[in-house]
Amino acid sequence: MADSIRTPKGARPAVAPDPHTPASAQRSARRWSWAYHKIRSLECGPLTAAWRATRFALFGSTGRFLSRHGWTKLRRSDD
């Protein structure tokens, strides 16, 4: 039997960066993922979260959207 890597239930396996994918695309994917999970944690639906995460990854701001905390906006800091 071949060795297999076991991950805890619900954990995401670590994925090595693809050497053929530009760094900017990897950064955008990480930004999208972070924004999506953050917006979902604010109890927004998956469609709203996907749309706002896409705006965040492309433009650096989600625009205003309604969450459980009222009107919210996420912006990327350019420190």
What does this structure look like?
It is built from two helices and two strands. With 79 residues, the protein is mainly alpha-helical. A two-stranded antiparallel sheet has the order 1-2. Strand 1 and strand 2 form a beta hairpin. Helix 1 (23-41) runs antiparallel to helix 2 (46-59).
List keywords for this structure.
single chain, about 80 residues, mainly alpha, two-stranded antiparallel ribbon, 2 helices, about 40% helix, about 10% strand, globular
Sequence stretches where pLDDT stays below 50 over 5 or more residues = none
**What is the overall shape?**
globular
- Strand order, sheet with most strands: 1-2
Report the count of strand segments: 2
Q: Give the radius of gyration.
A: 16 Å
The termini sit apart by 50 Å
Output the number of helix runs. 2
Instruction: Give the helix level as a range of percent.
Output: 40-55%
Describe the biggest sheet? Answer: 2 strands, antiparallel
Content of β-strand: 5-15%
Oligomer: single chain
- Judged by helices, strands and strand pairing, the structural class is mainly alpha
Mean pLDDT: 79
SSE string, helices as H and strands as E = HHEE
At a glance:
The protein has helices at residues 23-41, 46-59, and strands spanning 65-67, 70-72. It has 79 residues and is mostly helical. It has a two-stranded antiparallel sheet with strand order 1-2.
